[in-house]
Model the fold of this input.
Amino acid sequence: MNKTSSHSPIHIVGGGLAGSEAAWQIASAGVPVILHEMRGVRGTDAHKTDHLAELVCSNSFRSDDATANAVGVIHAEMRMAGSLIMACADRHQVPAGGALAVDRDGFSAAVTKEIDNHPLITVVREEVTGLPPKEWDLAIVATGPLTAPDLATAIQAETGADALAFFDAIAPIVYRESIDMDICWYQSRYDKVGPGGTGKDYINCPMDEAQYNAFVSALIDGDTVGFKEWEGTPYFDGCLPIEIMAERGRETLRHGPMKPMGLTNEHNPTVKAYAVVQLRQDNALGTLYNMVGFQTKLKYGAQADIFRMIPGLQNAEFARLGGLHRNTYINSPTLLDHSLTLKSRPGLRFAGQITGCEGYVESASIGLLAGRFAAAERKGEAVSLPPATTALGALLGHITGGHLVTDEEPGKRSFQPMNINFGLFPELEPGSIVKPEGVKRFRGKDKTIMKRQLVAKRALAACAEWLAQSVPVIEAEAETV
Ligand SMILES: Cc1cc2nc3c(=O)[nH]c(=O)nc-3n(C[C@H](O)[C@H](O)[C@H](O)COP(=O)(O)OP(=O)(O)OC[C@H]3O[C@@H](n4cnc5c(N)ncnc54)[C@H](O)[C@@H]3O)c2cc1C
Done:
């Protein structure tokens, strides 16, 4: 118990973006917190200071446009929910056009000061080397992508060896609506139905020989991002970057992830494709498709250009581009319940990047939710989940169940880290997108912008209702139709 609260404390391991936000939310609910952060005693390979919520790389929180950008929407929702991370970011903003960028030192110094000065929060500088002990009846693990090895081993012992990954191998994800189905077709290889399938589970993009050769050359010539020295080179044959496979021989991809066997192009059944790129449904909503086997270290700009060479993906919009990084994250869709609690250990929640979200803002937002849920549990109140139509709810839903688990190959998991994006939100009611009066040409791009604006507006209204607040007034700054 704490001198200003009758509640027992909630323990948080990790004072990064997620842990700091979780601590703030819990303390704001009148519940004491003990925040265990190892920096100051032991560093990580990427952090440079012992400040809480240090930004390890870029100083950008990405777009701040809440009218038509999913990241901007989650910013607005976090502000509504009293986020410390957003308040300090807003106070330490530096000019960056439509993005929210911050003075990194001013930002993390401000978070540290607010946490240190809060009467209900105690910061303990120590490494936690095992799972939170049972006497910490309510705890949150928010140790991030660089979780210290002893704790990672303990998490692995609790969850199973395959349930904790130390690298991500991210294949790009494409918005279903941006795929040209006049070129592509639905079919599983050899029409296999499999468990839970229909025989038409993949979207297939056909290539002829000239297109394939041009594509392989572009992959080999594309600019790549190197690994940091401390990351090592984590290639293993099950998840080689697509450009490394291309370098191994011109035919390698045609015999690997781009093999055309067992597939018949329904638009041109008599001509056998020379190679086929397959995309697999990634979320239960069916709005996102994952480019199977296309994990890559190509730079983002190169990826978009090269992958749009694939027939059917010429106008592809990417919800997430590919990557391969040092990361530590659990298989949340199978391990966590809807309020981020480890199913095998009631009272123990996970938050931040270790849950399989990606990015500063997303990590902080999952910390915000874990903190609110833990505080409600401590106070004996019902845990209130954000509606699925909010950005917070869409991201939470994806992590804890929205991703389609397709563990078709033993030892291989399909769940990979995810940013917030519009593909995670439920579809609008049919008929919501209507051509505005007086507009002559209403093209696909206009419809996409209008859809995003409507989804954003619906999200903010649902979030305001969830938090019993009025809807914030947000000025449109993006393209409007
Ligand atoms: C090298 C790198 C670069 C990145 N660049 C970006 C970027 O530019 N933009 C972006 O949006 N995202 C980036 N990310 C992704 C990610 O969003 C950030 O890492 C983010 O900080 C994650 O927030 P978090 O709170 O989950 O983890 P962190 O912010 O890393 O916080 C975790 C905290 O837990 C502490 N800790 C770990 N183990 C223990 C232990 N056993 N006991 C006590 N404390 C412990 C750590 O010291 C750390 O302070 C990057 C990640 C990495 C690794």
About this structure: The chain has a mean pLDDT of 92. The pocket of flavin-adenine dinucleotide is lined by residues 13-19, 36-39, 44, 46-47, 56-58, 127-128, 142-148, 151, 352-354, 359-360, 363 (CB under 6 Å). Residues 262 and 357 are 35 Å apart (CA to CA).
